[in-house]
Amino acid sequence: MAIQSASPTPSMFRKKSTPVLNTAASYLSAVSEADARARAPRGTPNSTPALSLSSSVTSSSEDTVLHEREELNSDGLAYPKVPPTSEQVFTTVHAEFGHCANDSYRFTSRYNPARPLKAGEQDPPYYILLTTYISYILVILFGHLRDFFGKRFKATDYRHLLAHGGYAALNSDFDSFYTRRLKLRIDDCFSHPVTGVPGRTIVLLDRYSPNHNKSILLTGGKTRGLNVSSYNYLGFAQSKGACADASAESIRRYGISACGSRREGGTSDLHIQAEALVARFLGMEDSLISSMGFATNSTVIPALVSKGCLVISDELNHASIRFGVRLSGANVRMFKHNDVKSLEALLREVISQGQPKTHRPWKKILVIVEGLYSMEGTLVELPAIMELKKKYKFYLFIDEAHSIGAIGPHGRGVCDYYDVNPRDVDILMGTFTKSFGAAGGYIAGNRSLIDRIRLSGHAGAYAEAMAPPILTQVVASMASIMGVTLPRLDKPTSSTRSLLTRHSDSTLNVIAEEAPAWRGTALAAWLPTWMPTPQSMCDGSDSQMRLRRLAFNARYLNRALRKLGFITYGSADSPVVPLLLFHPGKMAVFSRLMRTRPTPIVVVVVAYPATSLVTSRVRFCLSASHTKEDIDTILVACDEIGDLLDLKQGVGERWPLQEIMARAVELVHMEES
Amino acid sequence: MNTTTTALEPLFTLLSQSYTTLETTFSKIPGSAVVARYVRSSHQNDPGRTLLEVILILFAIRTLLQSRTRADNSGKHFIKFDEKEVDELVDEWTPEPLGAPLDEREQAEIDNSPVIVGPVGPKPKLSNGKTVTNLASYNFTGLAGNETIKERSIDALVKYGLGSCGPPGFYGTQDVHMQLEKDIADFLGTEAAIIYAQAFSTISSVIPAFCKRGDIIIADRGVNFAIQKGLQISRSTIRWYDHNDLKSLEQVLESTEKERRKKKGPLTRRFIVTEGIFDHDGAMSDLPKLVELKQKYKYRLILDESVSFGSIGRTGRGLTELYNVPASQVDMLVGSLANGLTACGGFCAGSHIVVNHQRINGTSFVFSAAMPPLLSVAASEGINILRSTPSILSTLQENIRAIRSILDRVDCIAIPAHPASPMIHLYVRLPSPTHLLPSAALASPALSSASGRLSNPSSPHPRDPEIFDCDLEDGILQDIVDEVLAQGVMVTRAKRLRGQELTEVRPSIRLAATSALSKKDCEKAASVVKTAFIKVVGRHRK
């Protein structure tokens, strides 16, 4: 285990038998001390690197090109702690995609109808909620005080908040107050610039602020940290490997841009090929690709619904869906997050009542849900919604921005996970930003519907088409997940065939025979002829490894955090794991302490307005590129910081850290109790 | 009687004891004295008051506990049904199909849109095997397929991988994004800039980031679709002025000011929203006059330079360079990196305050993944090339002149575009009774003010709208496009979402000039377009 040898932690971090520190005063001083150390600028010549008693961490100024850096690897980020044996051949860069040969660290993400996973939403003790409110009130009070005096005595600094010279203030509402007075205090935890590949590790550009975050300056130094912040579920954020090679080749062949909108001459053969492949991947008739994920929702929904239609939307749906619905002019009703009963009650009401005032029947009702809610980690209750759909005849739109690729035994999203026929869903939407390591999004459905969207959606006429290298990344990563069946007549393919038959542990062989059924492999003819198709891509071993590693990592971290006593939200199969912090102040401290550990860990902390005011949280985004040791590193860190910040408020059975790490495989395979 | 009292005695003692305990505990709570005093003073021997306060408190608790998603079944329009009736209504209800099926013409459009095989450039190959001259793709500066850009992009791919895998706020901001923002700001001469992942989603996010309910926006009647959507989302009060008519703008500014003075409302944010070169027809705004007006009336200017950035001015800086107006005079300068720089995405340049505000309030910036690093590298390199090679823009202008010189004086073609605009819209001019407007109307859009009548500023429709037969002209133009394609030149109709645009846009063929073609090729292509126009319009007359 990497962490024990490499992290001689300062005494205050040492695991205490009880989470309670002696007195409140010592607790507070410990927090402030740790926080002060974490906030100190790193990499500046005069300061010592925070928390680094071992010399290893000082390698923070390494270049992103790995082979150029001098060897200092006690944190295990750039190279594996245990060197591979001669039989193990890894083709990936460890810093981008971790080496893990242990086959027991694998799992298959699949819905078990007999023992459905419970989305564990525990409420914190009341004192936590109370103190959270108090801390918000305090900060808001101070903010108003400072604004009050600032506007009177330092008018130049507040010029943009006041009317001047006949111009009204540019931004003066609560949003602006929140940004200046609350978010600014912890701005060092947001928008951190990075460089290099956002893979298993990520390189942060060090920064410091001389004036309490008013301006944040780069020091010029860099820190490599373990990355649990990027949406890189299947680990396709790679600068080396089949996908990157294919993209590079497409730049050489196609250039950078499609030069126009899809309907005004911006359509190339790559677009056609990619759309066909996406449709086959999803098991739908046809699909349409859009060059931006956000715009996929915001430009397609207006083509589906209009005045006289009703959109029923989960209350926690993404901003892009709300944006699209607002543009469409349709009526909107919301139901309680992921609550099928609330949805049914609402459906009964709206169908029986009809349109407001006129009581005319709705033209159509579109229910919009997300497959995996990225802030909550909850999976949509698809089987129950499909039942409702039969009865209430609404149209179903599933936004699979996070679930596509990341969920299901074949990575085909929630339909695959629940074993629901995707053709029973009217519209599947998703993005390529997350699991596929590309950009943009797709919309899939039956052919006439997609053609309608091509014509009536905003993007087709006005928005730029997707760029060729991005399309190629989509095609290559998707083919990699599907596996590729090479044509049988094409040159002797003995090597491929032997590989195909060798993999008996998966269902790949069966599927290969009946291709091109849903969840089947891709035929080589579907791909661009110039695209290199290495063996690991063809036989599906690469995709199986990715899918099963991700499923293992997701379950392991989810369950381990609960066993440690943390309050987490969502399904155990979700690769997004939100850990509840509640207090706004703890967000900053948590983020800083994680970032400044001997093995720095890069996490995302989120608060209002992305979540409700009291449920500030840290969000771990797992990836197939993480190894079991990486998850252990995260757990050790969470355990220490959790004690320090009094975060272990969950109920239920607890295991000590060592036991969790030792019994990881058992923990992952455990049935839901 | 006595027995019952004695039997109840322990109970009474218990009650009085617990009352005393309660009282002492209550008095121990800090601030309890204040509460007690308040209750006492508010009671004032009047139980009615206490009752009222209790009801108020209960009401407050009820309001707080009420779910946001609760069904609104208290209204007077709510009809009560029992379960069986609801079931019947559910059974009865039949929804319309989700997407209306395509008609023949729409299907033909889907089936016949050209597909480019291989790279886009001045002479791409189409899926039917033909190599054509390309006047359809946005490649004004000829940077598509530029070898340096390709090389730099591959370098970026090797260093950063492809996707940025996160929104800018959550570790999606790469150093190359910051570099591009700096490059744009330096290039234009503004304090800062912010990049969005898609050009189309840029302005529809910038406008609502600043303009809220109650603010005033004065917009051109001919603004593009993305701006229209931004205006719709903003929920601001919108006033319209006649397309590209600054006299009309001044009148609207004046009348809005009067209205405000009359109402004595508070000072609200006020914006003028318009385009540099209009996407709808290629007309160009008179920027100096616009800036003068905005300063006079104290408005902020949101200028969409999606077409003009990278295509106008000595080095492609857009309208500000052409008119020699400092870019800092434009409060929010929005542009596209997809058109002029042949990369992807859009930007908004302005002061630090303007830019930083969008980093939290620009919806499509905050809630979308950052642009892939290699595309920002491509855009940065594009700016570099434009900066160091002014000949690109002069070639482009020569090509525009070559095309215009052939198409300008053709009877059946009307060109609303500015002579320097690289985006050239061609209207078909039919001498039939369906088209009654005098030809001069097309050349000078300042028709309504010239006639002295004002349009209603609250309506997006002008007082004297152009009269044209949309389907007829679309059909003719499509025939022309097909004819031109058969002769080896690719052009396109300007595709519009009929019915979704605020005002019906006149059908046109949109040419995009490029510096990558030689002057001779441009002339040849323009002649092909001219011949096709004459041929198809002539055929139509018969």
Automatic annotation (TrEMBL), chain A:
Pathway: Lipid metabolism; sphingolipid metabolism; Sphingolipid metabolism. GO terms for biological process: ceramide biosynthetic process; sphingosine biosynthetic process. One of its GO terms (molecular function) is serine C-palmitoyltransferase activity. Residues 47-61 have a biased composition (Low complexity). Residues 33-65 are annotated as: Disordered. Its cofactor is pyridoxal 5'-phosphate. GO terms for cellular component: endoplasmic reticulum; membrane; serine palmitoyltransferase complex. Keywords: Acyltransferase, Endoplasmic reticulum, Lipid metabolism, Membrane, Pyridoxal phosphate, Sphingolipid metabolism, Transferase, Transmembrane, Transmembrane helix. Its EC number is 2.3.1.50. Residues 226-475, 542-635 form the Aminotransferase class I/classII large domain. It is found in: Endoplasmic reticulum; Membrane. It catalyses: L-serine + hexadecanoyl-CoA + H(+) = 3-oxosphinganine + CO2 + CoA. The chain crosses the membrane at residues 126-145. It is an enzyme of class 2 (transferase). Belongs to the class-II pyridoxal-phosphate-dependent aminotransferase family. PANTHER family: CLASS II AMINOTRANSFERASE/8-AMINO-7-OXONONANOATE SYNTHASE (PTHR13693), LD36009P (PTHR13693:SF3). This is serine C-palmitoyltransferase.
From TrEMBL, chain B:
Belongs to the class-II pyridoxal-phosphate-dependent aminotransferase family. This is serine C-palmitoyltransferase. The lineage of its organism: Eukaryota, Fungi, Dikarya, Basidiomycota, Agaricomycotina. Its cofactor is pyridoxal 5'-phosphate. It comes from the Eukaryota. It comes from Phanerochaete carnosa (strain HHB-10118-sp). Keywords: Acyltransferase, Lipid metabolism, Pyridoxal phosphate, Sphingolipid metabolism, Transferase. Pathway: Lipid metabolism; sphingolipid metabolism; Sphingolipid metabolism. One of its GO terms (cellular component) is endoplasmic reticulum.
